[in-house]
Amino acid sequence: MAFIYPKNEKLKSKKVIDALFTKGKSISQYPLRLVYVPIDENLSEEKFQFGVSVSKKYFKKAVDRNYFKRVLRECYRLNQNILKEKISQPHAFMFFYQTKDKLTYQEIHEKTIQLFEKFKENHK
């Protein structure tokens, strides 16, 4: 499997983002949260759409928010096969970093793997 995060997988559609927050289901593994929702093939031509978010409430400086968003995208890129192996229908995902603690890349990477495994178990 290629470890890529192409532009067409990025979550940008306002309709899909609204569906995530209204109908989406959530799984947490402190300090990360994954919100997901199955989407219509009509809304998106891609099988997966993925977005990341870091709260301005916890990180006032854009530099800090951007750092954690880069880390989250990299963790997704390296571990997306865990999510994709069980999914047959198109899904949209939003990945949140929800703490003011500044965890290291390694800690975030381990938590990401645990979160994706948890999703895989719950999504059978």
From TrEMBL:
Keywords for the protein's UniProt record, in alphabetical order: Endonuclease, Hydrolase, Nuclease, RNA-binding, tRNA processing
Highest taxon above the source species: Bacteria
Reactions listed under catalytic activity: Endonucleolytic cleavage of RNA, removing 5'-extranucleotides from tRNA precursor
Any one Pfam family match given in the protein's UniProt record, by short name: Ribonuclease_P
Gene Ontology molecular function terms on file: 3'-tRNA processing endoribonuclease activity; ribonuclease P activity; tRNA binding
EC category: hydrolase
Presence of keyword RNA-binding: yes
EC number: 3.1.26.5
One GO BP: tRNA 5'-leader removal
GO cellular component: ribonuclease P complex
Record text on subunit structure and interactions: Consists of a catalytic RNA component (M1 or rnpB) and a protein subunit.
Record-stated family: Belongs to the RnpA family.
Entry-linked PANTHER family: RIBONUCLEASE P PROTEIN COMPONENT
Function of the protein: RNaseP catalyzes the removal of the 5'-leader sequence from pre-tRNA to produce the mature 5'-terminus. It can also cleave other RNA substrates such as 4.5S RNA. The protein component plays an auxiliary but essential role in vivo by binding to the 5'-leader sequence and broadening the substrate specificity of the ribozyme.
Protein name: Ribonuclease P protein component
Lineage, uppermost ranks: Bacteria, Pseudomonadati, Bacteroidota, Flavobacteriia, Flavobacteriales
Gene, per the UniProt record: rnpA
